[in-house]
Amino acid sequence: MATVTRRYLSPEQIGSYHRDGYVAVRDVIDPSRLAELRRVTDEFLERSRQTRESDDVFDLDPRHTAEAPALRRIKNPADHHPVYRWVAFESPLPDIVGELLGPDVKFNHSKLNLKGSLIGAPVDWHQDAAFYPHSNDDVLAVGLLLDDASPENGCLAVVPGSHRGPVYEHDDAAGRFAGSIPTGDIVRLDMASMRRLALPAGSIHIHHYRLVHGSAENRTTTERRLLINAYASADAVQLVPDSTRSPLFGAIVRGAPSRTVRREAGTFRMPPDWSRGYTSIYALQSRIDSR
Ligand SMILES: O=C(O)CCC(=O)C(=O)O
Fold it and tell me: How far, in Å, CA of 131 to CA of 96, rounded?
């Protein structure tokens, strides 16, 4: 059986991922690659000026204009530029994920969330598992910080240990999937233990896909950009159709494909079928009227 060589994570970091549902690692990407990622992301922002409506590449804030672009997400960035693809497949990220889930790891999806200066794009409390449930829980997301992230500019916030609790329904008062956990369930969580992951650019945070997490708006005059790549153990099978429509969905990033499916994830609500088109978490959450 293949084994995993541990080069990046200490036993303490691996233990804290399993106990708390998240772990942060500093200085994962070197400054020159980081500069390239920022430059390429600036180019996408420039390109978004020519776009009026969200499409397969850009998810636009309703305030977006050509003069003042308000791009809140680049969809499937690994499909659109070699440097984003490098992060997803060649950088230390897949090796680090292999140390947590390995040795056989597959790619799920990528997205680049942008919180422009004073624009915001807050993300309500949610669990990724509610969006793309799998047959087992060896599924996680890695956020690479392109800018220093702080509580003021909307760094990721997590509820430690919540990955060991239920996967909550993410519905609005009318029973429609709304992409966020209702307040009635949030108040039952240990919100006093909530942590805001303030970290320098080039760091990553990794969160378990059942972990409750979210982020506040950006109240500063600088940007907060977060490149997220999600991965799964090769024997975790997604229980809903792929909504990204990316050719990279399910590609093996480390090790080998699995000939078996591991089932151990328990019971939770199925999300809607987005196989013919997914908007974004921002669009879903903005529909919330009352709870
Ligand atoms: O960009 C963020 O702060 C969090 C994003 C997030 O949790 C998501 O897109 O699922």
Answer: 24
